[in-house]
Description:
This protein has 164 residues and is mostly helical. The protein contains 8 helices and no strands.
Amino acid sequence: MAVAEWEMVELFPLASETEIARTKTLLEDYRKMRLLMDDYENHTEDMQQVAIDGEVARRIDQDELHADKAANAVLLAEKQRWVYEQYLYRHNALLRAHSLIIDDETKQVINYRYFQGYTMKETCLFFKRGVGDSTIKRKAKEGVISIANSLRTLCFFDNDVTKF
Length: 164
């Protein structure tokens, strides 16, 4: 590759507005995602047994005339594992991008607001020590943008499957 081609490559690409919005959505859904991951990790065997014994696996597709319950249970378990792996990928990417935030106060605001799951009002109250609400909201916005930029650099948006 010639030097001129290397000069065209951005070392730290900036996230688009769409990618920033996607990052904010991922952060807002983080607690729910983490709860589902914990449930899967702690109850995988129970979930598989329910799929075998229960009606969940009887018909995965409503158009099926005859259902193979054992095969459907295997398919259901594979789908659950796939969803878990997608959540794990997102979880790890978000934590990695969060660790790359340089400003400690911004990192704390993001942690408290999104990873611990507090509302913006609760986050502002937590950081009230001489810091105004507008500053906390600005730091939260800067944190989301920082995470989106890091995710862009890590090619997260190229690999993320957004629909299950």
